[in-house]
Design goal:
This protein is mainly α and 736 residues long. 69% of the residues lie in helices and 3% in strands.
Amino acid sequence: AARLSSEPLKDFKENISGLVDGVAKATAKTANNRVKLNALRSAGVLCRCVEKADEKNAAKLFESAFETMKIRDVDVEVKRAALTAVAQIVRQVSSALGDYHADILPVLMDRLNNSSTQLTALQSLSSIAESGALDLTSKLEEIIQTLCKFMRTQTSNQVKYESARTLEAVVQKNGKAIKAFAPSLLTEAGQHATDSDTYLCSLVLKLIGAIVKSPAQDVLKESKEMNKVMERMLLFTQSPLVDSKALTSIVECFRVVSLTVSTFDELLAKLKDIVSKDTSAHTLSVVAKCIGAMAGSASEKKRNAYIEASLGELKSGGMQIKQLALLSIGDIGRRVNLSSHKGLDQIVFSSFDQENQSIRASASYALGSITAGSLSSYLVGLLQLLDKYREYNYLLLRSVREVVSCYFGRSDEIAQFTPQIFAALVKHTDSKEEAVRAEVAECLGGLAKIEPEKTIKFLHDSLSSKTPFTRAVAVGALRYSLSDEVQEVVGTRFGQFLRMFEDSDLEVRRQAVLTFEAVLKSTDLVNKAENSKLMETVVVQTLYQELEPNQNFIRIMDAGALKIRIDNHLPLRRAAFDTLATIIRVCPYRLNMDEFYQWTMQGLLDPEEDIVTRTWDMYFQITQNPSLRSSLRNLGSGKARKPITDSKGKSVQAMHKILLTFIKKKMITLKQVSSRETESASECTKKALMTVFTMVEIPGMEEQAADFTTLVGRIKQTKGIAKEIVEANNALKAQR
């Protein structure tokens, strides 16, 4: 099966009869379940080599898998493999299986009612339904009723999700036949169009779209079932839980409904009724995308009328109405060339003058989106604005980012314009505004996905720039460019990016740490031989150095009676702890754990609460890793690399003394009047207690770290943190 998946099919087609015979015999006659299992997997792949007119080999391959599928008393893995193999064979050579078609569905339906084969049977039915290789009409009502029941009653989310997918495939391939069941099916689907399970909702919305696109749409127009579903759809657009998958589905569902069982005008009115002065930015975005999708598919007359009305609302509407107008114009512009609307880009740009930040952000999105929809009409104007209006650089760069992001995977369509975009971005790499540099980095990272060679070379060369801001942008841009194509281009250059850990500038080092963490999470660049040594000698050692507050970047501002501590090193320190936590999660074998503990103990008494919490989070993560858990004995009995000075000037070094100092400090904070600070201290203490309570249960801890174990026993009896002790114990019980 593995060779069939990786080698040219022609090599197998030449010997197909012998291979089919061998697989069929192994499937039907062997008593060894492992052999039978591999034979069935091979059958599912081998069917790709069988010609559609080759009835003899098709029948032999099918019979061997189908006979096994019918057997009840067989290993469950073999049952599942047989179901998968039958589905693959039917998809591939159904035309050569004429006499067998009537036998397949009854057995498949039987397997749907068996909990051990239910999910695999659903996947097989979905595969067959998508292919249209089998006539399902004889069992259509039973299939629909069974799958609806699964969505309604099953506790397994996987079964629910697969049921929704299968129903969509059934509807798409059996449109005329489902007409009689459409109203009841729509009602069933509508019950799941809620935010209680947004992933199921996203699948159900696709199903609803398939139903209203089918020939059954005639019986659904103005029906009570459709009205109820539309009410649920409108309610769902207002949910704060709408994520990217659900958003894609709800937008497409509104678009399809507006073209079939409803109209653009009717749905537009209902969507706009949602908007009020209290409408959240998230809901406004969802509503705007729905309107944009509907308008993009509506007639030109209706679309133009809506755009003109929206432009009017920019002059007289309230804050939310102006936002909706801008966002929806942008979403229409992504889909349709709006250059026929003279001066549209300038009208949108005029909203950059608005006092409200949300309106300005919406205008930035709209300008970028309409530019993406008509590069030849608007791009030059956008880049000229970027040169002319320095005060709007940040917003205009966000517009450029929208343009670039629209063309991921469509590089040919933007290729002639990338030199202009590139030249405009380069001018702003040394901007003094951090927000502007961040946008430039993200734009360059996006551009690298479109034009990898040129962009990565520029970023690599910029690492040698004399300007720290330019170096920071270059190393930060890599973080936004991590596609498969870009990884290949970065290749051996990645070592130079790692060298930026040693840069003299604080911000360059911070960007290097953030980029490295992103690389760890999404690529295997650090595993290349040429980068492994750098990670050990440069990256990890530099991260350790950044864990201790750097007094060169900390100052005290005297505000009379109030002394304010300004810690410019904190962002880098925070990034260093986060990156070490990622190394622990992704590749802990890169670390010497004794050395790791000696350096990271510093974080337990850091002046900043979020660093302390991050350190305990990291240690707790280790307690949950079976391969690292035993190393915590060295933490319990260990010492920090050097003495740590607490807030009172007292130095501590051993772990049990660090823990005692931490607990005393938190008890003082927790005695204060309830505030944000006490809540934060309580959560931090709870995480610390969960960690140390788990540590003392590690075999050998008491013998190796007696002082630490004794202290934890005393802490368990401490009344000043009784609430946190109870919460920590309850949290640990819930995890177990």
